[in-house]
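User: Fold this; tokens only.

Assistant: Input:
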Amino acid sequence: MKKTVALIVGTRPEAIKLAPVYQTLLRSETLQPFLLSTGQHREMLAQTLAAFELKPEADLALMQANQTLPDLTARVLQAMTCWLHANRPSAVLVQGDTTTAFAAALAAFYARIPVGHVEAGLRTYDFAAPWPEEMNRRLADPISRWCFAPTTLSRDNLLAERIPSERVHVTGNTVIDALLWMRSRQRQATADPVARARRCGIPKVMAARYFGSAPARWILVTGHRRESFGEGFENICKSIHAIVEQHDEIGVVYPVHLNPRVQEPVRRLLGGNPRIALIEPLGYEDFVWFMDRCHFLLSDSGGVQEEAPSLGKPVLVMRTTTERPEGVTAGTSRLVGTDPAAILHESRILLGDTTEYAARAALRNPYGDGHTSGRIVAVLERELAGDTFA
């Protein structure tokens, strides 16, 4: 009889990064996956799972309007505890640094069910940036039986915190598995790019100019970090406006996060510009499609820092620090914070220096090779077969 591994998802990034693990577990001869949703971000989670042709086998439906971090954490911990005691899976997998990941890991720890933390060991060692994610992941790792570290640097972070070496496994990042699977599926399709851009909200004139037969260059922007609310987002918007003003041919596509503290400055400062498309948040499938076609990205997203190098796209990271320094070291990304001078300077390089752009676009992705999920499942098969965990 196969042993059950429960994969816990609550947000879009968790769905993206655990989908390939679920798909790999389906092919296991000794393990079977069970996909459990907390519903932390209901609409975006369902949309993302559907892109991978997945649907949760159980949904705790915990999302509430205007939910606070303490309330959500308590609800996840309590609901997960009840579910775990009723179902007793052989192992629990959580991903990343969300409230779902931390609270689900804690519930499994209390229930004495071994936890696997996918994407373990990322650190800024600054609890304020990113907040509260840095705290979430630092609390999840010590209580995890398996810390699946994406890189040797993340492994070294874990070992420095005295997490036993036998619990740490360098696997790469599952987001590359997901990205390459999605890109392969998209490149087999024959849909009209202008029509697809229009469907995603790009105005007619921009769609023809930037997605037609001879597309002009354009920049993809994402931004949502709490630490940039206020002056930070004001500066980001002013920088984007300046880039467009200084480069007559350049366009910008900006899927705007639904948070009102992002929407207000973005629409006030960038709305109405004919070369800036402010569109609704994209599903994962559409986002990969856009990312594959942009010139470079301006982003504060951790996932984008990991994904873009596999598509040959440089990233300017609008944060002052990152828990993913491997990309900065490799040269696939540059930290620019929310400083307009830094954003403009680095943007000019990528737009004006073709040699530098080509060099960065050709760099190897330090975060994975597309085979991470297989490595994770192999560890689980080996250790769960003999119940070797303590």
